[in-house]
Structures are given as C-alpha cells and as structure tokens.
Amino acid sequence: MKNRGSFKFTSLILGMGCITVPLILSSCSARKGINFANFESYMSPELIEKLRNTGTNPVSFLYYPTNEDIEMKFKNYYDLAIPSSYEVITLLEKGELAKIDWTQFAQFDERHPDEWSDIKDGTSALESGMFSSTAEVTIYQIDSYLKNRHIIKDDESLLDYAIPYFLQDWMFAYKDFENKGEIPNLKNPENWDDILKEISPVQNKNLDPRFKPKAGRRIGMVDDSRSVYDMCRLIQTNGQDVNPPDGINTISDYKKTYQELTSKFTENDNYFYINSDSYQILYALADPYGLSSSIAYNGDALYAATGANVPEWEQKYNQNNFFVSKPKQTLVAMDMVVLNKNIKKASESKKKDMYHLLYKTVLDGCFEENNSDGIGKEENGSYAYGPMINFDYTFYTSPLYNLDSYILDDGDGYFKTNFPDKYKLLSKIYTISDDMDEKNFLEKPLSNLNKSNMYHAYIEEKGKI
Asked: Between vectors from CA 187 to CA 183 and to CA 189, what angle results, nearest 5°?
C-alpha cells in the first residue's frame, strides 16, 4: 500500500497554487494541453505520473476543495474532472458534459477485443458485467432520477456522460485498547439514531468511557456541511431521505435537521474533533493515543485501520480492537469522471489523449481476471493497471467488478495477502451493500439559496459540539 499522507500535504499546496494561478491562461493557453481536475489526494501520485506520460498533449492536474468549485470552473477551465454524483447531475442540467463515445476505448485494450466489440454506449456498458453489483444499483437509481426529470433521454444512461471512479459509504469506527470488546448495540444498527443513542451523553446515561472527551479521545468528523446534513436528515426521516424537502428551506429549517446530532451532545464540552481535511481525522484515528472514534467515509476508516502508513500503528489494529458500525440506512456517495463538451472542438490528437486518460483512470484492466495474475498483476514492483494502482493508494471502494472481487478474495486477494491478520475487518469496512433504496443515498442538487442557508445553519450548529 502506498503512502497517501505525504501527498495529501503536497497536493494542498500545489493544488491550491494551480487553482489560484490567474485564470486568464485557462481558456486559451491551458486548452493547448489537457486540464484534469480532482479533489486533493483522491488520486495516486504514481498514477498521476503515468497519466502525465499518456499521449502527446501535456497534462496538468488541478485540485479543488468542493464540488461547487467544479461547477464554477468546469465549463471554461477543465477538460476532465471527477465530481460527486449530485454535481454530475448539475453539470448535465447545465449542458456542459460531453456524451462519451464508448467505442473509443477498444483501441487501448488489445487483449479483449471481443468484450469491447459489444459495447457501443452507456447502456451496453452497464449490461457488460464490468461493474460491481453496488455500482450497478447506484447507476440504475441515478438513471431513474435523470429520466424521470427528463435530464437524459429514455434510451440513454448516466454512463453516457460519466464513468464511476469510486464509491464510499458513511459509517462509525471506534477503537478499544481496554479489552472492553465490541459494543452489542453497535453491531447491526438500523439507522444513525441507533448509533447516537449509544455514543450520546444526553441519550446514554451509562456512556462508554471511550466516548467521553479526554486528552484527545474525542469523536472525529469531517467538516462537510452536506455529508453531516445527510446523516441528520436520515435520522429526521427515519431512514427515508438524505435530501431537504423540495422548495426553499430556511436557515431555521436546516438548523432543526442538524440538531438531530447537536442536541445529543452537551454544549461546549468539546466532544467532537471536526476538520475539513479528512487525512487529519484518519491520522488522528490511526494514532493509538488520538481519537477514540470517528464518523467517516469507509475509505478513510480503512486507512486508519491499517495504521495510516505508520508501521508500529499498523501492527496494533485487528478485528478485536478496531470496530465499525454501518447503519443499514446510510449515505452512499459515488464520484465519477466526466468530459467537457468542448472535446468535440478539440484536435483529433487531443481527443484521443482525453479518452486514453479516461480509460487509464477508470477502465484500465476492467476485463482482466479477478486474481493476482489478472487485475492484481504486478510489473516492476507496481500494479499494471490504473484503477488497481489508485486503490492501493486511496482505499476507496472500486466500482469495477473484477477489482472489487480481487480485493475481497479470501484466497490470494488484496486484503488477505497484504493484511492477513485483519482482512475480515478490512473487508467489512470496504464492502458497500447493494441492498439500498434511492432515497437513502442519492443527493439531489441544491439551489444557491438552499446551499447558503444550509451552510449558515451548519456553522451555527457545529459550534455547539
């Protein structure tokens, strides 16, 4: 597994530098090359170097902190980007995405001409078996949403405009170095309310000492107003919806939803460690003397459970002292790679390079066997295929069927080979259920006024915990 920590800090500096360079360059000079934009630390540095050497057009990697930055800059400054699914919907509604020509990918995979010959568009790609069952269910649900609102045609698919990059789900992780064991009520929670009943000092008068703030033993949580809202909204609707009601919601409305969390903790007792940099949270969770627990995405919990690349920490954790609690009703997020519609104005050379970048990032090796000689094959000490290189760095759940199967295989799979003493724990964290309802995970785009009201409510409420 490659270290993503050192790159995290570098990308924050270099990425912000790329974004704040005078944008007068972007629509002309930058268009001579290819601008590939992503969230900071969401791509392996090794894969980035491989992608830089793809084709004849120079590739620049730009970083942004939020999906809203993509929305502002995508049309004029980015050739490829990796937004979350709700931002994909917004870009589709604005007409800024290119329709993906799936017949372009066959030229980059000489080993599997028969498989590619059957794939002509997003619909046939979805039926090809290249994606995991969880990814397929997610795509079908978003397809339904898009078609019902006439954002795409009935004979189109989300895959005609975006290709999955990775999946994540929202969960609770906690540690145990006092031999107290796993908490029974946290083994199979139905909803987030079941978790809060166990870790809240307001609701649980016999609160486990692991959840009492002391010398850094706090609960970590990423500083993201939308993800925190989704969790609170699931509690408010008894697991039925992550989205606010239709129409304009006031700051007071949003505060009421956030209070599903904040009212469960005594004010000003510093129960939570909240940080916008998820690496700081997972590092603190991995530290044996750091956070006792965290509300986090599963990829970050995976990284913490493997010691955050600190060897002495990695040895400390196993399924007997690192536990996860996944509600059946929880947020599932999917990020996807998209192409700017201006690709149709690009030269043939640039167009080919953009499709090659897209292929190497998310589809490279997708028809290889799901074993160490297939998708897990190594060449010169490194994995041969882009998505596998990326997983080895990010630990986010793959949407590819063969990669997903190889990672979880209990014979010579990735977890069993690299972490034999904790592969069951890691498999549990990694796995995202395909038994889900559209309402549980699909974030709808918000109007600017709703975004503003949600953010202001969040700022007021998070200060209480």
From this structure: 115
